[in-house]
UniProtKB/TrEMBL annotation:
It comes from the Bacteria. Pfam families: MFS_1 (PF07690). Residues 22-396 form the Major facilitator superfamily (MFS) profile domain. The keyword Transmembrane helix applies. GO terms for cellular component: plasma membrane. It is a multi-pass membrane protein. GO terms for molecular function: transmembrane transporter activity. It is found in: Cell membrane. It comes from Corticimicrobacter populi. This is MFS transporter. The chain crosses the membrane at residues 20-44, 64-81, 88-107, 113-138, 150-168, 174-196, 219-241, 253-272, 284-302, 308-328, 348-368, 374-392. The keyword Protease does not apply.
Amino acid sequence: MSNVEVVPVARQPVAGPRLWLALLALAAGGFGIGTGEFAIMGILPEVAAHHMMTEPQAGRLISAYALGVVVGAPVLAVWGARLPRIRLAISLMAAYAVTNFASALAPDFATLMFFRFLSGLPHGAYFGVAALIAASMVEPYRRGFAVGRVMMGLTVAALLGNPLAIWLGQVAGWRYPFALVGGIAVLTMVLIWRCVPRKLPEPKSSAAQELGALRNPRVWMALAIGAIGCGGMFAVMSYVAPIITQAAHLSERFVPVALSVFGAGMIAGSYAGGLAADRSVMKGMLGVLVWTMVVLLLFPVLMVHPVAVFAGVFLVGTAVALGTLLQVRLMDVAAEAQTLAASLNHSAFNLANALGAWLGGAVIEAGWGLRATGWAGAVLSAAGLVVLWLAWRQERRWRSLHRA
């Protein structure tokens, strides 16, 4: 027995240019969020210099944002349970715009850090509700396609938005990237209002109903796959700058190039993840985790070559395919707690970011060198496979129980 039908879809699915415009509007929010999340990594030197501190000290802004994502996803999903999804998406983008404009105007570091935390709050909830809106516009067998297109906004940000924001910060000052992101959020609000159809299925929900996701072991297992299995990508990419300059012996000017190549890999991964989700979510996750483990085992060989390192970075980026598959998986298992479960996917993704960065740093500090980041990432992918196997067994028991 499958519960795919718990995600309602329009009786007459949206099609043609209208569908593409609606998906583009939703993806624009992902583009803004992706730019806001990652650009700070490239302008840390400017932020640190302005506030007269070291770059590691300024790096607390990244942690503050990630904490906001982890906290905000469940809180805002529950808060917005009774709101129409389109109104909730626009409200979340409004909050993202205000907090980024406030970040641009922050008079001191403590205030900036506070607004970076607030900026992270709408992140996960927006992606969750945007994915549900996208899935409701198409036939059930095309949900992976629709969700993948929304998630592609985040990946295009890594390819284009992040380098643009970093360049703007270096040329005009660190405040301007935050203002740029706020402007993208405002544009997204307009696009969603104008382009996303109003007459879409709106299942009734409540805070208590959404909190039911936290009692669902299948939801927790899916989140565990993401929190562990996605960590391998971050074990490597958190240290892309020293990998490019120290392992591949290239100039610092190639670091933004590597980030753009990584973004291209993420776009390819999002596309592949959407196709796989429309065939078999569980088999798709198995294939992505095995693929990622192989890529990460190969990466230490590629990273020492000044050309092959870019191929390796591209391949590591394709691991983001797991995110789309997990988004669809959470829709399938969340029953009536769709918004919270879909939003928690991004909390898990940020936990994977923290876990991967920590493990990659630990093996470097242990004296094993930058090459060991690939091996550490492969271990996390292998651990994700173990969790997936447990989820598979759990799914078989659940299906047997509901057939009885």
